[in-house]
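Lab notes, practical 5.
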Amino acid sequence: MCTQDHTDKKKALDEKLTTLPTSPGVYQFRNASGRVIYVGKAKNLRNRVRSYFRNSQQLYGKTLVLVTHIQDFEVIITSSEVEALILENNLIKELKPRYNVNLKDDKSYPYLAITNEPFPRILFSRQRKRDGSIWFGPYTEARQLRSIIDLIGSIFPVRSCKYRLSAENIAAKKYKICLDYHIHKCKGPCEGLQAEEDYLRMIDEIIRLLKGKTSTIIRSLTETMQLLAKELKFEQAAEIKAQLDSLKRYAERQKVVAGDGLDRDVFAVAIGEDDGCGVVFKIRDGKLLGSQRMYMNNTSGESGANLQTRVLEKYYLETLELIPDEILLQEPIGHDEEETLRAFLSEKQQDEQQEKKNIRFLVPQIGEKAHLVEMCHQNARHHLEEYLIQKQKRGEAAREQYGLTALKELLHLPHYPQRIECFDNSHLQGTDYVSSMVCFEKGKQKKSDYRKFKLKTFEGSNDYAAMEEVIRRRYSGSLSTTLHWPDLIVVDGGKGQVNTAFHTLNMLGLSIPVIGLAKRIEEIYTPQARDPFNLPKTSPALKLLQNLRDEAHRFAITYHQKLRSERTLQTELTTIDGVGEKTAFRLLERFGSLDGVARASIEELTAAAGTKVANAVFRFYRQ
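Output from the prediction step:
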């Protein structure tokens, strides 16, 4: 029956393929449950969609997997490739198909708005509205945009108030000048002290500045200043000069990357295993104004050229920046994609009333332009590495939290074990018996709460007595008041150690959950339970317990080795007449070990510790 259903569906799919139009448009592939798993655009729908089903041997990677899940498809015919480009972008945003490359949406990125009112204001906004305002952005960093707004305020006296400055309100003397007027941050349009025409000329200068036309503004302001000086309006000329000085300082900070003064956008992409980063350099008047980056995932099997095309399309679909003269690319894009993008950019220039330009797409190989692309690519690699590090940290944090959740459910704890303390004992044939306690909070080490114990209430080898002593000392006396109580106690050992810890806690009147982790086959023991149980090796709860146990073991071994070395020092070197603890340490530091001291010549010992000590040590080891 299932085979018949599959045959019927394949037949229906083949019939739909024969009826496909040759028009431009968008296609959507669906899986068996009817969910859209891929959205694409095409100049010719028939050729593009059929290419997925012709020869599976020519497919690879993600595309091959995609085709095995396609059970149905539908197409939307558009009047042009540009419409298809826009529709594809909107559908991907809305549907989030499984097999499309995912680019980080810029809906949270900030914009700069020049408001649509008689005396426009400069605003920071995260939501672009169709209210007639002039918009710039998106900017990748809010800090970068705020610094630009501060810069504009330092050069131009733009009002910061929220007054509704209509001609009627100003004539009615409805508003009064504020502090900004007195510190020359505003020229007082609220009281009619600045004409609207003069204010709008300033807004035009700001727009040119935001478009990167600093040299044009400097020339314009210089001419205005000289004209005012000729007319003997020295106070106004001085104000313009102050603006010019601030603007020149800003222009000097901009990095000149091209001597021809052209407007360019430079694109490059860095690719990881299943992630990528695209970077755009915005160059205006030959100066690098800034950059924007986009992160991608689900990139496995995608070529660099395809990913670069996706970055290009997303950037120009959503940016409000000036369209440049040249677009420099890391790799060539397909002819159809280039023509579609060129047509879209032409329409965008017309819609936004920008200067009509014959845009050039270039893939430079040598010279200054190739250096720009390489510099852009280096930035993309750097940002991708940072992104992958942060992604790994987020994954580790999620695993740690998942490990705590799994432990809570596994042990039926009343709440998450945010604080866990783990104990381990160490000794050598019953000598130098020590115990360690390590602490993890929220799945991470808290080394400031680590403690070590030199055990002294028993002799010989007795793990149960060791466990009883360390639990009693930790949870009574001074430590019980200086450290927080844990939500879970883990001991390194089996049934005997767990039950010893449990009974000791009961004697102290405490009811803290306690478990044991045995090393041999990673069995977990709980108090008074007859049998242990195991967790899958991939369990995040087991990973967390293993990290705790291994850290406690490391801490105990380190302390035990220190005590052994001190005891060896005390029982051998310090038994020699005339050798005290400080001298013994000096000899060990000079010769590296007891063996080194024993093999040292009388001359070497004399140089290290003096004649009397040298003779005593030399005789001790030679005898």
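Observations recorded by the TA: The two ends are 95 Å apart (CA to CA). The first strand starts at residue 25 and ends at 30.
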